[in-house]
Amino acid sequence: MFVSTQIQLAARPQGWPTHDDFRTVQVTHGPLQDGEVRVRNAFVSVDPYMRGRMNDTRSYVAPYALGETVTGGAVGRVVESADPSLPVGTAVLHQHGWSDAVQAPASTFRAVAEIPGVPLSVHLHVLGMTGLTAYVGLTAIAGLREGDTVFVSGAAGAVGSSVGQIAKLLGAGRVIGSAGSAEKVDALTSRYGYDVAFNYKDGDVRGQLAAAAPDGIDVFFDNVGGDHLEAALDAFNDGGRAALCGAISGYNTTTRAPGPDNLANVITRGLTLQGFTLAGYLHLAPEFTQAMTGWFGAGTIAYDETVVDGIEHTVDAFLDMMRGANTGKMLVRVDG
Amino acid sequence: MFVSTQIQLAARPQGWPTHDDFRTVQVTHGPLQDGEVRVRNAFVSVDPYMRGRMNDTRSYVAPYALGETVTGGAVGRVVESADPSLPVGTAVLHQHGWSDAVQAPASTFRAVAEIPGVPLSVHLHVLGMTGLTAYVGLTAIAGLREGDTVFVSGAAGAVGSSVGQIAKLLGAGRVIGSAGSAEKVDALTSRYGYDVAFNYKDGDVRGQLAAAAPDGIDVFFDNVGGDHLEAALDAFNDGGRAALCGAISGYNTTTRAPGPDNLANVITRGLTLQGFTLAGYLHLAPEFTQAMTGWFGAGTIAYDETVVDGIEHTVDAFLDMMRGANTGKMLVRVDG
Hints:
The structure is a homodimer of 336-residue chains. With 336 residues, the first copy, chain A, is α/β, with parallel strands linked by helices.
């Protein structure tokens, strides 16, 4: 008998999600069918974009269905196989989401290379989705150029902690990051390649950014929105480009906040604000993987994980991540 | 003796400009020097962007200096010449601005072709700056594609009245315009190539746009900002592109209005908002002139002028234009 513990969406959250919006279920799977495999997860991902899918609103991906398991990235290992392409022991990446184990067709899993001494979880961040997000935002969206001054909001998060390093590797000049604690600000400059960093919880994001970027910014990689976008619009040099990746400051509000009061700068300075999600840029994954594997292998990519143990604490991990409790990637470790 | 009447900026307007912010002066010019010409203007241009230059704030062009003549587009004819390149009688375009006559080096004027039966003023709009603005916004900024649904705010103005027609000529599908009076709305569909139009002063721009664009919009050409930008963000299809050309709704406010409350759509729908001014796109002028001369010669470009007579009424014309009193291009006719 193969049993899994899964977290389902029980109700659509209003504002901040609560435990009542989710339900933990035990699922007993039927006999393994030809072409199926059974996987025990090692790490399950919790990501900001999931909050949007919990709403029943138009977005680039369909909303999560009520009463179904929350899908998303996870990595694990095949423990039983009825498909020759994925023998027992294979490390796999998949999108089955918040569960400690999965039984599903082999075609819904992708084998990943194991790197000696490196946890499988890197395929959920620096070598996976969040690393690709950083790369796409800097290259395809913001068109990073040699010597550009780059500002990154939410710079100590899963995406932001890669953005600074990739920007430097791609030739950026000054790279500036904001984060929400003194520890994170320290990590930005000591670990993640940022030249200068500030704590947005100290207030006056506009003033702090202006002080950090006396010659203005050319590229803005936004994970936060709100006052960070407003500050960037004031700091932009002519022809500046913003890659709008996330706006976590507004994900759990029940009222929609007004936008920045200085959008007129977009016209007078000839700025470009481009939003993106990975869906339209998966064709860049091979190019990214080649570059990142090289950097990673050379030991030039620093990363951190904030790990919560136990699938039953997935919702806690998700909420902690939304509150900014993580440095680097927030993960749920399933197999202890 | 060569005397000109010029309008100078006397004070920086706070909010809506008043006559007290300007001063009319008579200038007696010295003897004509080698290389100079004297020009009597036929038409002087008043344009929305001039309002921005009246403020002492950073912008793509320097602010107007206090106590100097307001510069900008004008067309006229050489009446005395001390430069063989511009003989008496030559029709010229220049940037000397709000004056009934100019004495200046020949190099600061550009000879323009006269088209039989067509007033020189077309070089101040459809064959000039505003036509080029429409063309650049649709092509270089918004990347107009065959079949795109296009929404244009302030569509009956000098720029907007060209945008609809050029969009159609370049292969757009449905083209939707907004304007501020029933007469203008009628002109949009009867003269300017729009498929459907609405009066934004009837309110509910979001609802009116949604009704006009049941299948969403792909391109937004914005001259207005404010509620028009907000409405467009709700109407955009995935991958939509906005050319932000102007935001006249905010030019005369003394407080900065908050931005749209739905900027999150930029991310979830993968939108691009790009501001622009002509300064960076003058290299497209030859391409535009070739295309527009062809369309214009074929009689396919409709245009209108709202003309105020007399250089002494230039400020009235400017204020009327800011209030939307014009259909098509607002001009001051100087030589009666």
